[in-house]
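Final report, section 2: Outcomes. Of the targets proposed, Copper acquisition factor BIM1-like domain-containing protein is the one most frequently requested by collaborating groups, and we therefore present its record in full.
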Amino acid sequence: MPVLVSTTGWRAKRFHHPLNGALPSQPPPTIGFDDSLEATPPCGSFTVDFSKDNVTNFAVGGDAIAVTSIHPQATWLFRATLDQTASGNWTALLPDVMQTGLGDLCETGLTLPSSWAGQKGVIGVVQDAPDGILYQCAAVNFISGTHMPPSVCKNVTGLAATYTADPSLSNLPSTATAPSSGSTVSATTSSPASASASGKSAAISNIRQ
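The predicted structure is given below as tokens.
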């Protein structure tokens, strides 16, 4: 499963997948992070390069992304594309997610079309924060099956995450196949996130913005 990490703005802590054998303290990195250029789309000023990037696996039948926010309130967009340049054809994984509360948030049960399995692509995470729209990306191999979220995928105590419609983010994906907005999930304990009835939970941990 991917987990993103960066610094101020929004930190995509890292993409972590149990099959990578990486420890939570040494997760596979995003394709790059520069705090001063994080507002540069689509990947915070970095160019996807599958020959050099640390490529991780993302299961199309269900996987997770963990992020950490350093803002009291911010809204997330989770998206993916088969365009290996990350220049377009984005598909939203969920409606926009508004996080209220500092700290870890983990989004589980993220799915993509089964036809994506066996192809390379990019996971993009965008945050609408008080300091602007911030971007990070991870290069991935889309694979079949599902992945259980690892122990690093948690919601900080007291955090609330709500599906919403953010005008600043709604025009970014070129394709959106997400459930309707209005669903709400609150994280009241710092325990691994569990899937909601629809197969998706508004849990997000490990991206910092």
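The two ends are 20 Å apart (CA to CA).
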